[in-house]
Structure formats: structure tokens, C-alpha cells
Amino acid sequence: MKPWIIIQKICFFILALFVLVGIGFIFDEPTKRLFELQKQKEKLKKQNSELVTKTEELKEDQQKFHTSKTFVERIAKKDFKLIRADECVFKFEN
């Protein structure tokens, strides 16, 4: 082979390498941003799913408030420490 052809191929290879490295630098930041946004999207999907589940539970409780006296009584006793007029509460000290 002629020496100029070898030099030409080496120069072409070096030029191609510089172009590829340049393209890598150009697309590096948008690619990082894309991965960050995908992670954030997955996190928000999970959070949304949890909120949907919690909303469904609260809707069920709301329905129970309208239909079940025992549910209302249980919540009143457990959360608000209320008792009926005919009940007595005994507190024991340890």
C-alpha cells in the first residue's frame, strides 16, 4: 500500500473518533436528563398508585359511616375515646 493511503485512513479514523466523541458530549446531558425524568416518572406512578389505594379505602370507610352503626361506634371509641351513656370505663394503673 502507498504511504499516503495509510496516512489518509489513519486521519479518517482519527476524524471519525473525534466526531463520535463530540456527538457523545452533545447527547450526554439530554440522555442524563431523560434517565432522571424516567426515574421521576416511575416514582410518581408509585406514589399515584398508593394515593389511589388510600382514596379507595377512604371511600369504603365513608360508605361504612353511612350504612353501619357499629363501624361509627367502633371509630368513636377507638379514635375519640368516646363511650355510651350506659357504659363505664375502668382504668387500671400498673
Please describe what this structure looks like.
The structure is a single chain. By secondary structure, this protein is an all-alpha fold. Helix content is 82%, strand content 0%. It has one domain. It is built from two helices and no strands. The longest helix is centred in the middle third of the chain and has 65 residues. It is rod-shaped.
Mean pLDDT across residues = 88
Shape: rod-shaped
Q: Into which percent range does the helicity of residues fall?
A: over 70%
Total beta strand runs: 0
**Head-to-tail CA distance between termini:** 100 Å
Low-confidence stretches: none
What's the oligomerization state? single chain
- SSE string: HH
Q: How many discrete structural domains?
A: 1
Count of runs of 4 or more consecutive helical residues: 2
Rg result? 35 Å
